[in-house]
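DOMAIN: structural biology
WANTED: fold as tokens
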Amino acid sequence: MKRNLIILLIAGFLTSCGFGTQSQPRMKTNPQCAEVRLESAFDFHNQAKDFFRSFYKTRKESELFFAWYAAEDSLYMANSIRRCYDKKNKHFNAVSNLYNKNQTLQRLIVQNMRQESQSKLSELYLEDYREIFVRDIQ
């Protein structure tokens, strides 16, 4: 009885692992990690340029903030290419090009902001956040 139970357990284990049956080959889900992230980084950069362009049309300062955060997202996606297994020299060159573009765009954004430093800018919103985060901001 014990022998039959052990044989059944071993057979169940082998079939659950895929041994003993013909299984179909598994395909990789994301074969081009670096390409997808690079494309996303350029998309964020284009969004940042669009927000900056719309600032000149509407003169709303919120468009500058949206442009800044889109440029930051672009830099984050460009930095995440380091973790990809399929990165090549062309990705390195594209990322360095994207860094230069985003630095230039961020300099233009900062020049057009009314406040000169981030501390002055954060003081504008301090009262709003104090109601939400009572313990964090003192």
